[in-house]
Amino acid sequence: MDAGIIVYSKPGCVQCTATTRALEARKLSYDVVDLTQDPAAMDRVTRLGYRQAPVVIAGEKHWAGFRPDLIANLP
């Protein structure tokens, strides 16, 4: 997996879909974790201070929402 990218997502989330499409367009590998199905994942992103999906964790970097500017800077 490139840089250990994890996308914490929710069903029907437009920003989540835009994020995964942008990662695919850059041919970056990632894992998706459904926040509605994984209480530990929800706890993790909440502890990081996030309240919206998606939450992307890529190595030491993390952010919430669709951020094409940050995706463009991933290795």
From TrEMBL:
One of its GO terms (molecular function) is electron transfer activity. Residues 5-63 form the Glutaredoxin domain. The keyword Transport applies. The keyword Transferase does not apply. One of its GO terms (biological process) is cell redox homeostasis. Keywords: Disulfide bond, Electron transport, Redox-active center, Transport. It holds the Pfam family Glutaredoxin. Electron transport system for the ribonucleotide reductase system NrdEF. NCBIfam families: GlrX_NrdH. This is Glutaredoxin-like protein NrdH. It comes from Falsigemmobacter faecalis.
